[in-house]
Design goal:
The structure is a single chain. The protein is built from 15 helices and 13 strands. By secondary structure, it is of the alpha/beta class. A four-stranded parallel β-sheet has the order 3-2-4-5, sandwiched between helices. Helix 3 crosses helix 4 and helix 9 packs across helix 14. The structure holds pyridoxal-5'-phosphate (PLP).
C-alpha cells in the first residue's frame, strides 16, 4: 500500500467528494407549490389590524416553532441578523449602554448591538467548549452594562446557569444567539435559546434547517414578544402609547418573513430531530476514530448539554507534533478532507472594532458623550480565543456534508495517514 501523503505526490484517501448536505425534498416542494397557487406570497400589512402579524403560513410556523422549542412566543423574521437587531431593540437599549458578548461568533451578534448605538464588550471564551466564559463576563460588568448576549457556538449551549446567575445579580438582561444550536438542550432538557430573556435561531442556507434566508425569535416574556413583533413591522406606524419606554427603539424596520419561506421552514422544522440524530451518529464515529491521535482533543460536551454539531470543533497541540497547523491542514486537504477550518473568529480584532469605525468616521458611538468609559479592542483582550484562533483550533464544518458511516471512516483514515507521516510533513515543510 502506498502510504505517501497526497500532498507529497501519493494517492489521496478520499477520491470522490463527500455528498453535500441537502434537506430540501418533496415536502418543501409541495408546500411551496401550495403557496404559489394561492397567489399570496406575503400577507403582512404595516398598519393596524390582523394582517400586522403576517399571513397564515407565518403564523402556523410560529405556533409550530413555539411548541417544538417549548416556549411561549416564537416570532418569525427574515434573517437571524434581523432577529438579533430586534432583540437588542426590544430590551430598550439606550445609546452608550454596554453589552457583553463573545468574540467567537458571527459578526451580526456584535453589530446588532451597534444598531441601537450600544457598545459591544468582548469576554473571552472557554478553551474547551469555545463558549463565552462566565468568569470573564463578570469581570467586565460596569455601571452601564445592560445585557449579555451569549452565543451557543458550534452547537451546544453556553453556560446559561452561570450567566443567568450573573445577570440576575447585576440586574441585566440575558440574550442568546442560538443560530448554530437549534434543537440542542441544556438544564434538564430545555431547548437552547429558550433560557434567555430573548433567544433565537437562524434559518439561512448554511444552518441545520433553512428556508433560504430566515430566522426565528423565541421568548417567554409577553412584553418582549410584543416589542419584537412591533420592531419587525414598522412599529412607529401603529404603536399606540406616549410612554417613552414603550416608544423607544420602535424604528421602521421590515424584518418580515414571506409565506414561501414560512412554508419551507415548517417542513424543515419537522426534519430537525432526524437531522440532529444523523450528525450525532457521525460524531460518535468521528470521536471513536480520532481519539487516539497524538495531541488532538475531540469536542467536549459540557455537563447537562446535548450537542447538535454545527461545527466539529477540536483543539490540537501542534507544537508537540513538530509541525504547524497550516501544514497539517494542507496535508488533510490534499487527502480530500472537506470543510476543514483552522481558526474561527476574533471579532474584536476586525478593522471596524480595532479602529472603532461604525457610524461615520468619528468613532461614534465609542467616542460620543453617550459612552461612559473608553472601550477599546486590541490583541491580548481575549487571550484564550486568540490562542485558539492563531494556534490550536482545528474544526470540521460538518454541516456542509451528508456524512454516512463510510464517509466518516474515510475522513478518519485520512487523519490517521497524516498523523503517521508527521516526520515526512516536517522534513518537507517550506
Ligand atoms: C448564521 C449566524 C448568524 C446570522 O444569521 P443569519 O440568518 O445569516 O442572519 C448570527 N450568529 C451566528 C452565531 C450565526 O452562526
Amino acid at each position: 500500500m502506498n502510504n505517501t501523503l497526497a500532498l507529497l505526490g501519493g494517492p489521496a484517501v478520499i477520491r470522490k467528494p463527500i455528498k453535500s448536505f441537502n434537506t430540501i425534498g418533496d415536502e418543501e416542494l409541495a408546500s411551496v407549490t401550495e403557496v404559489m397557487r394561492s397567489g399570496v406570497l406575503s400577507a403582512y400589512i404595516g398598519a393596524r389590524g390582523e394582517a400586522f402579524m403576517g399571513g397564515p403560513r407565518v403564523r402556523a410556523f410560529e405556533k409550530q416553532a413555539a411548541e417544538q422549542f417549548g416556549v411561549k412566543h416564537a416570532i418569525a423574521v427574515n434573517s437571524w441578523t434581523s432577529g438579533l437587531i430586534a432583540a437588542i431593540g426590544a430590551i430598550g437599549l439606550e445609546p452608550g449602554d454596554e453589552v457583553i458578548t463573545t468574540p467567537w461568533t458571527m459578526v451580526a451578534t456584535a453589530t446588532a448591538i451597534l444598531h441601537f448605538n450600544g457598545i459591544p464588550v468582548f469576554a473571552d471564551v472557554d478553551p474547551e467548549t469555545f463558549n463565552i466564559d462566565p468568569a470573564c463576563v463578570e469581570n467586565l460588568i460596569g455601571p452601564r452594562t445592560r445585557a449579555i448576549v451569549a452565543v451557543d457556538i458550534f452547537g451546544q449551549s453556553a453556560d446559561m446557569a452561570a450567566l443567568r446567575e450573573i445577570s440576575t445579580r447585576h440586574g441585566i438582561k440575558l440574550l442568546s444567539d442560538t443560530a448554530q444550536a437549534p434543537g440542542a438542550t441544556t438544564q434538564d432538557g430545555k431547548s437552547t435559546g429558550t433560557l434567555a430573556d430573548i433567544g433565537g435561531f437562524s434559518l439561512n442556507y448554511h444552518k441545520h434547517i433553512h428556508c433560504g434566508e430566515g430566522g426565528i425569535l423565541v421568548t417567554n416574556d409577553d412584553r418582549y414578544a410584543r416589542r419584537l413583533q412591533l420592531i419587525r413591522n414598522h412599529a412607529e406606524a401603529v404603536i399606540d402609547t406616549n410612554d417613552p419606554e414603550e416608544l423607544s427603539n420602535m424604528l421602521g424596520y421590515n424584518f418580515r418573513m414571506g409565506e414561501i419561506e414560512a412554508a419551507i421552514a415548517s417542513e424543515q422544522l419537522k426534519k430537525l430531530g432526524a437531522n440532529i440524530a444523523g450528525r450525532q451518529r457521525a460524531v460518535k464515529q468521528f470521536n471513536a476514530g480520532l481519539a487516539s491521535l497524538k495531541g488532538l482533543k475531540t469536542p467536549k460536551v459540557a455537563p447537562g448539554n446535548t450537542h447538535v454539531y454545527y461545527i466539529y470543533g477540536m483543539t490540537c497541540d501542534f507544537a508537540s507534533l513538530g509541525v504547524t497547523r497550516t501544514r497539517v491542514i494542507e496535508a488533510l486537504r490534499a487527502e480530500g478532507v472537506p470543510g476543514l477550518i483552522s481558526g474561527y473568529q476574533n471579532i474584536h480584532l476586525i478593522p471596524m472594532f480595532r479602529n472603532r469605525i461604525a457610524y461615520g468616521t468619528q468613532g461614534f458611538p465609542w467616542t460620543s458623550p453617550y459612552a461612559s468609559r473608553d472601550i477599546t479592542y486590541a490583541p491580548g483582550l481575549c487571550p484564550v480565543a486568540e490562542k485558539l484562533h492563531n494556534e490550536t483550533f482545528l474544526g470540521i464544518n460538518i454541516c456542509l456534508n451528508d456524512y454516512g458511516p463510510a464517509d466518516v471512516a474515510l475522513v478518519v483514515e485520512a487523519f490517521h495517514k497524516v498523523w503517521s507521516q508527521l516526520g515526512a510533513l516536517q522534513a518537507t515543510a517550506a
